[in-house]
Amino acid sequence: MNDQSIEFEELQASGGKVIGLARLNQPKALNSISLAMIRALHEKLNQWENRPDIAAVWLEGAGEKAFCAGGDIVALYRSMTEHSDHRQSDEGVAFFTEEYELDYQIHTYTKPIIVWGNGIVMGGGVGLLAGASYRVVTENSRVAMPEVTIGLYPDVGASWFLNRMPGRSGLFLGLTGAHMNAADACFAGFADRVIAHDHKAQVLDSLQRSEMLADRAHLAVSDVLREFEQESARVRPESELRRLLDDINRLTDANTLSEIAARIAAYDGDEPLFQKAAKVVSAGSPTSMAIFERQLQETRHDSLAQVFEKELKLSIRCLEKGEFAEGVRALLIDKDKQPRWRYSSLEGMDQNWIDGFFDHA
User: In sequence order, what are the beta bridge partners of 33?
Assistant: First the structure.
């Protein structure tokens, strides 16, 4: 790409093999991923998958702050607001369509993909991380799905992986956008290994030198990552999510979403995780919470492909109905942090409004 918002390298490895390296290169924007970057990565992954000399793929973010903070939602906002009829937002539809195609490609890739998830990993960044065959997080990682704060909902396959988390932690994380550290991410199933960030160059070097890479690539990757995870025990944090899982389950054990949200918002204890969750639930979009909870229920037994298909339809509805545009305006455009949500609470919400998000005729 001419603008270098994503970079590609090919690293020579043992046995005449090559490791394909892709680097999201927008560090000032925390490596937020644009439609152009999505298209470039999708095309390059296709090329590498079909080349016999490519043994594995490595995906990272430029800089020290973030792997990927999500999609370029400012560009999405512009595409939504340029037209009085949001359905004319062809760029928005293309963005979600191709982002989900890329995520699904990563989930089903036939060669090892290692994602180095250092720093901020949020929203669309989680979509890139979650589907990889080897998902590494570091002592700096902060993982979250904060879409309820911008009038969207946890997407990029979240309807699939949040449903598979321990207890009701997936529901809690989606409703609250709670941040996870590296150990939390592993406990929740977002990641596989915690490795110190200062080992990154050594990990790559060891992969290039591995004699098993040529004919047993998955075994080679597993062995290298295992070795460096063992050397990184000093940086592995405690998992707050594991420690508080029983409390999370109790907090989210109610008959209705309104009751669950009210319980979280009313928390007055000393746990920082729940204190932050209370603020998000109080300020986030009630519409986002409602469509997220319904989407989670309706996709419980779906395949990954079915989940992405349903998410695409739902995301297109979000482009049309204005809540998403208002959330982005308040947080990132005008930055007044005073979104004017369609409904101010779950209690007063018209069910027909929510049904409209799921009416895909």
Answer: 71
Which residues participate in catalysis according to the annotation?
71, 124, 147, 155
Note the pLDDT tens digit of each residue in 30-60.
999 999 999 999 999 999 999 999 999 999 9
Give the residue from 234, 48, 269 showing the smallest Cα distance to 139.
Answer: 234
Q: How many CA atoms lie within 13 A of 199 on its CB side?
A: 25
CATH classification of 6-357 is 3.30.200.20, yes or no?
Answer: no
pLDDT digits (tens, 9 = 90+) for 6-20: 999 999 999 999 999
The tokens 């609250």 sit on which residue? 176
- Spell out, as residue ranges, where the chain has pLDDT lower than 50: 1-2, 86, 361
Q: Is the dihedral of CA 47, 50, 53, 57 positive or negative?
A: positive
The DSSP letter of residue 85 is: S
Answer for the pair 320, 90: CB distance below 8 angstroms, yes or no: no
Pairing mode, strands 134-137 and 113-117: parallel
Residue-wise over 239-256: b if at least 16 C-beta within 10 A, else e? bbbeebbeebeebbeeee
Helix residue ranges, H only, 111-162? 124-130, 158-161
Give the C-alpha separation, 339 to 322, whole Å: 11
Number of Cβ within a 10 Å radius of residue 316: 19
What are residue 91's DSSP bridge partners? Answer: none
Q: How far is CA 282 from CA 53, 143, 229, 268, 301, in A?
A: 52, 21, 38, 13, 30
Nearest to 69 by CA among 132, 126, 153, 140: 126
Instruction: Give strand pairing partners of 24.
Output: 6, 61
In sequence order, the 6+-apart residues with CB closer than 8 A to the CB of 343 are: 286, 287, 349, 350, 353
Q: What does the domain layout of the chain look like in residue ranges?
A: 6-357
198 contact partners, CB below 8 Å, separation of at least 6: none
d(CA 339, CA 244): 31
